[in-house]
Prior knowledge:
Layout: E1 3-13, E2 16-22, E3 25-27, E4 30-35, H1 42-50, E5 57-62, E6 65-66, H2 72-77, E7 80-83, H3 95-99, E8 106-107, E9 110-111, H4 113-126, H5 142-154, E10 160-164, H6 172-187, E11 191-195, H7 202-205, E12 208-213, E13 216-222, H8 228-236, E14 254-263, E15 267-275, E16 279-283, H9 290-297, E17 305-310, E18 313-314, H10 321-326, E19 329-332, H11 336-340, H12 347-351, E20 360-361, E21 364-365, H13 367-380, H14 397-409, E22 415-419, H15 427-442, E23 446-450, H16 454-460, E24 463-468, E25 471-476, H17 483-490
Amino acid sequence: MSVLRTEGIVKDYPGTRALDDVTVSFEGGKVHAFIGKNGSGKSTLVKVFSGAIQPTQGKFFLDDQELHFSDPTDAFKQGIATVYQELSLVPYLTVAENIYLGRLPKKGKVIDWKKTYEMAGELLKKMNVDIDPHEKVFRLSMWQCQVVEITKAMSFSPKVLMLDEPTSALAQNETQSLFEVVRTLRDQGVVVIYISHRLQEIWEIADTVTVLRDGKFIGKKDVGELDHKGVIKMMFGDVELKTRPTDLVVSDEVVMKVEGLTRSGKFSDVSFELKKGEVLGIAGMLGAGRTELLRSLFGVDGYDSGTITMNGAVMERRATPEQMKKRGMGLTPEERKNQGVILIHSIRDNLCNACLDKVSDHHIINRRRREEFAERQVEGLAIKIPNIMASVGSLSGGNQQKVVIGNWLNTDPKIMMYDEPSRGIDVNAKQQIFQIMWDQSRKGVSSIFVSSELEELLEVCHRILVMHMGRIIGEVYPEQLTIEQLYADCMGGKIE
């Protein structure tokens, strides 16, 4: 079995030490959960392993051979493959074409298509999955795309496979299918390093848990030696896991009423009321129509029929996001990096994108006011930044998410909609975002909270709507059901 190990890895950036004397090992034939809060250094170490960056000092070895990478291609050649959270597949190419993109086998100067599809088919069979190598990628489900990405990595015959948040966009059943693939690779002797913020997955898929905190190696333990509380303590020290405060008061005042909202092929006959100060959850599996519903409510996408009433006024069917914003609505989108922020722009500018009308005089930006608006959210949301002019792309996922939220809070919304705000961020950052929702509730701001982590909805929300196949099939209260019942409801089970 192969072994990947480090000796005293250090990585310095101007003004900060991201990795501090990290010495750790990962053995083949095991799935190693690699965890840590945002800013812990785990992403930096993964980048070192993948050849994306060079360590300031220290060494790392694969099977006792010291490794030196000039770029990720070198890492692939020397046996280390990485599958990132953001997939890099080409939608309109076939599965086989994606697997061997840039290195298609040739017969003379002509591509040998027969061999291409045979090789891809053999690889997929070895992965123990039933995916047609001739199928176009855009026709695949999300978990199948993940498997194709992994298969592409395995086509290089790596000894080490690093998986970065592989289940972040997967439904429960898809996650289980992916786990079977991971176990197959483990049984083949591959060193599998599994990075995830979904702590519940650790006990399902991992054999060991390795933790970094503040750039330092904290420990490595067998999964059987740890419980949830023990993992949290390793990651954060002593962290208090918050539950919904008892002092939050939901008014009887209805701030939004949705009646019979329908968008063909996405959702149908959706009706509900939202009350002042309420945190309303929407639960459901992927494909249930949750994101599509929020987009239509905010005016990003249209809808075919139904009405949206806000504070007694019926919204125009073709209302735009700008118009909905003026009515007091905000939306933090599911795709944080693509839709929520402009990564190359400054933290200051990203915090003021949605409130340019408030920081401008006659269409000219008032610089002092823009600074004040940005600083208000940095302080109020405890966003950790090097300086306000640093790029958003330099921040951790949790702090990026706070910037997205702060941008919309600067518009003084009456209704905030959060689409998967905790995806890809650590436990501490999640707790901070939940606290933001509760603080806003105390101010009378209503929230709609979509999350694939159903446990979060039970912890955070006053009331939960259950969506299945584009319809709201029931309304539940966290105090009245278990997580198992909520999962069953989301999969179409009877709501009692």
